[in-house]
Amino acid sequence: MKHMLLLLSLFAVQAAAQGTALLDLALEPPVINTQPGPKYDAEKRPGNMIIGIDRTPKGRLWAAWVGNGDSPNGFFMLASSEDDGKTWSKPRVVIDPQDGELNGVKYERRALVGNLWADPLGRLWCFFDQSLGYFDGRCGDWYIRCDDPDAAEPQWSAPVRFADGCTLNKPTVLSNGDWLLPVSLWTRDRMHGPGVDKEAFKDLDVIRMANVFASSDQGKTWTRRGGVAFPRTDFDEHMIVERKDGSLWMLARTKDGISESTSADKGATWSEAQVSSIQNPSARFFLRRLASGKLLLVKNGPVTARLPRRSNLKAFLSGDDGKTGARACSLMIVPRFRIRMAFRHPMATSTSSMTGTATRMRRSCM
Question: What is the topology classification, in CATH, of domain 24-276?
């Protein structure tokens, strides 16, 4: 009996070690491929999903999207445009975590969530996640950075993992100089895929929410500052703006559409989450402050209407920080915006022109 118990204990230890080794494959830095071959050409990709877009100091557009769509086989691609999005390069950067087999167990790794951000210093950041399977319960938030994104041959830093979770939307620069980054750690019901242990990472359950990470040193370090656990969350996909009175306003995607919370201490603590009067399907939306000082909101349909599906994308401006816009509909529709296939995953970037600030949104540029 003692020998049997010993054998069972050894098997349990080995199984635990195997599971840990498998899950920790998501901690290995992925290869940053800056010379992707023809296997990543458009005609060979079965599907795309928009990630983000931003503009460099000299006007080059960079766009990021996911090949293979919303799946455990997703991978990141980046391309650029020199003519304001009329034409695009072939993929210039690919982040494609490789699948494999460990001790007879097959596994998949993917990069699925992220964004592009041109920081105040003119550097371009690419935030991306890496997970085993579709979601392994921990995932991992990574970035690479290009300090001269207008160069003929841009050079990218080595990938850095700085948090558990993923970042879908851009950082916000506060009036005190801090950078705030939305980082979501998804709920456990999203866990699935080859090699995923649905009982893993229960120690992280306390921060399964719309987290806020902060940097006070221009991105050298990132630390968790606070977060909001939105009831009926649906990936969070949260965005943060700083209002003119210094308070922060967070909007997030939930099964009820959009929910919101506010913070009076730069993101350390947040008010109780509530359903916003800004209505939307459970879908990605966009909220950002423009150089003019107005807030830009992009969503499906009128401000106070929840459409049955993702359609009829509209852009609105608010000059009063959205305080009355959500209730009294003071937000103005922006008819001059040209929207190309931007009905599912809106993302925007701004540029100065003779007529002021223009914003262009593209669901898929490639």
Answer: Neuraminidase (2.120.10)
